[in-house]
Specification:
It contains 5 helices and 6 strands. Bound molecules: tetrahydrodeoxyuridine. The site of tetrahydrodeoxyuridine has 14 residues, from helix 2.
């Protein structure tokens, strides 16, 4: 991050809270906001969007990844998500896979247990390298 690490994280947490305030979560009542720094310095964010067909629900990370690509792509370097208490929460398992695809092993995730790499929060991840390993044969 270009700012000091603390300023960088504070800006990301503010963006995550702002996103959380836009969440559409009438069924669970659990609002989530996610924000991430991209390797070119910009910040992308997303909120959860639920659906009357519950399984169609989009986690906050889905919107964030869409915004990443919509605004020019790049790699995620730092990530955080929060609930309506403004508490840092863990991304769900599916969303860890989304984050892995767009940030890889080095992406730093702010968690309730401190700042961890994706390699720590999704050990032995399946990813693009696994596909390439077969295609290259
Ligand atoms: N949720 C997210 O947006 N991201 C996560 O990583 C965990 C769960 C949302 C989905 C659903 O709208 C609500 O939280 C309750 O599960």
């Amino acid at each position: 991050m270009t700012k000091t690490p603390d300023e960088g994280w504070a800006a990301l947490e503010d963006a995550a809270v702002a996103a959380m305030e836009r969440a559409y979560a009438p069924y669970s009542g659990y609002q989530v906001g996610a924000a991430a720094r991209v390797d070119d310095g910009r910040v992308v964010s997303g909120c959860n969007v639920e659906n009357a067909a519950y399984g169609v629900t989009l986690c906050a990370e889905c919107g964030l990844v869409s915004q990443l690509h919509l605004t020019g792509g790049g790699r995620l370097t730092h990530f955080v998500c929060v609930n309506s208490d403004r508490s840092v929460i863990m991304p769900c398992g599916r969303c860890r896979q989304l984050l892995w695809e767009n940030g890889g092993a080095e992406l730093v995730v702010r968690t309730p247990q401190g700042d961890l790499t994706m390699a720590e929060v999704l050990p032995q991840a399946f990813g693009p390298d696994d596909l390439a390993a077969v295609v290259d044969r």
